């Protein structure tokens, strides 16, 4: 490891002094259960961040994404954007973190919203994905401000809604309103490991297929037409032709983990027939031939594939089933599309963070691409800003799992990398 500059030494010490604060901040954020769906406690966490960042000299805005998918008076989609300007004009560095977390699920041995600190790890839903990253970016900015009183440009920190369900009530809304028009560098502290720089993500196409039938008495199914059997034929065709074809498609993108270097398809949900009876009820379903079955598809695709090719493959499955089944009838509805995104490895933010990782950890970073999308898609496509990466603490494989955690040491290291990046981008040389 090369010798640290006096500025790096000072930043390292400032972050070390804030270790307990970093732990407490992360715990506080975890203890606000911002579950999505439905969108709980968004205003509460934004108010918390408002108090914290205002006390550090940031000007803050609380922004509700009126009319965005999911926004309602019961579950308003609140976001916070905080900005602090330097002594002179210069470039703007923006740290963006999502405030929402996914469902808890089963299998936890710790309180999902307890923020327990054990053996150098903080446990809880959203610990690594991505409240630990949000906390690390705040500590990085505060340490930088304490050490460097004279700097040029601006620092922005945002906490945004709904990344886990597409980001349309968060970053997409902000981008549509022009909030990234004067931003030059974006760092998204997603959990990709402290020695990795994530350049982008695969594409995603979500669609719902509904097969149709005719209702009849379940004791006389020959008088009806079973939509579930039609859907079974669709699934069989996928197994026979589509899944093998996808397994042969590979990318030159540095996607992690290894299995995501190929095209993938997940059947996200499947339902046919009557609505399921609650487990609290004791009645039995009525005997009916199902006249509807619905499947939601989650297709992840590569930068080498076009969206037309992706959609055409699913259409081909339906066409082949239709040719074999005289009464086959269906509807297909697109739910979401996101094109693949990948920042140039030679872009300013990539090279700056790369040098900061090398100087902090004593090794060169690994450049990766995420298997799933995150809010870079909106900064790229709507905000028209290519100079964007994901970099933050945490292990990607822990996201959405029981006993999710983030390591304190990894948060400290990533905060140092972020603070050092601010120093390179905002301090006159």
Structure, described:
- The strands form four sheets. Strands 1-2-6-3-7-15 form a six-stranded mixed β-sheet.
- The chain is 33% helix and 23% strand.
- The chain is an alpha/beta fold and 429 residues long.
- It contains ten helices and 16 strands.
- The model has no long low-confidence stretch (mean pLDDT 96).
- The radius of gyration is 24 Å and the shape is elongated.
- β4 and β5 form a beta hairpin.
- It has two domains: 6-201 and 340-426, Zn peptidases (Aminopeptidase), CATH 3.40.630.10; 203-338, Alpha-Beta Plaits (2-Layer Sandwich), CATH 3.30.70.
- Belongs to the peptidase M20A family.
- GO terms for molecular function: hydrolase activity; metal ion binding.
- Keywords: Cobalt, Hydrolase, Metal-binding, Zinc.
Quick overview:
It comes from Pseudooceanicola spongiae. This protein has 429 residues and is an alpha/beta fold. Helices cover 33% and strands 23% of the residues.
Helical residue percent band? 25-40%
Task: Compute the number of strand runs.
Answer: 16
What CATH architecture of the largest domain would you give? Answer: 3-Layer(aba) Sandwich
Listing every helix as H and every strand as E from the N terminus to the C terminus, the arrangement reads: HHHEEEEEHEHEEEHEEHEEHEHEEH
Instruction: List the strand order in the largest sheet.
Output: 1-2-6-3-7-15
Which fold does the CATH topology of the largest domain refer to? Aminopeptidase
Write down the CATH class of the largest domain: Alpha Beta
- Count of the separate structural domains: 2
Keywords: Cobalt, Hydrolase, Metal-binding, Zinc
Cofactor: Co(2+); Zn(2+)
Protein name: Acetylornithine deacetylase/succinyl-diaminopimelate desuccinylase family protein
GO molecular function, one term: hydrolase activity
